[in-house]
Amino acid sequence: MFPAAKAPCVSHARHASGPGLTLRENGPALLVPAAWGVAAGAVLGVVSAHALFVAHVVMSALLVAFVAASWRDMATGVLRAWKLVILSGTPVTLAGVVGFLARDGTVPALAAALPADASLAVAFYGWALLPVPAFVYTGLRDPAVPRSTVHHAAAACSVAGAAVAALATSATGVVAGIALVGVGQTAGILAATALY
Length: 196
Description:
Helix content: over 70%
Structural class: mainly alpha
Number of strands: 0
Number of helices: 8
Radius of gyration: 17 Å
Order of helices and strands: HHHHHHHH
Shape: globular
């Protein structure tokens, strides 16, 4: 059977209510564009490297808190796919933290043992590409054609944006890649938020 023809396997179980649940449901739709906006701002020099470091630390803590609070709600179907993205994304985000610590010499042992730019690249390209399989899977499982198209477009924008950034020869080109990733992933997350 073709995956798109299967009934969607979605967990709509609600184990909690109130502001905590609302923040968990809608937080990603706010955090995704904010994260990519900060990254673009850092490339353009509008956001300092220290601010980007702090953003990585805060995001690492938020990812752990989010997955811990949502563990049971994200046990099956599409939500499980996104739980795997978050679990994989936590060490990717921490790679960014390590990269900044190595780059500025805060931890001399890190600076000597680890190439900072490689760690920062893991964080950047990791978050550009980690959501791609989950967007594709969500699109295949979503019975609504307009939304499923958005999920697939989000996956395509993520891959295309990562490629544009990787091949860019200027800050403007990197920002164009980041914008493509950010717009695509924001649209995909908004579509997923509307579904769940």
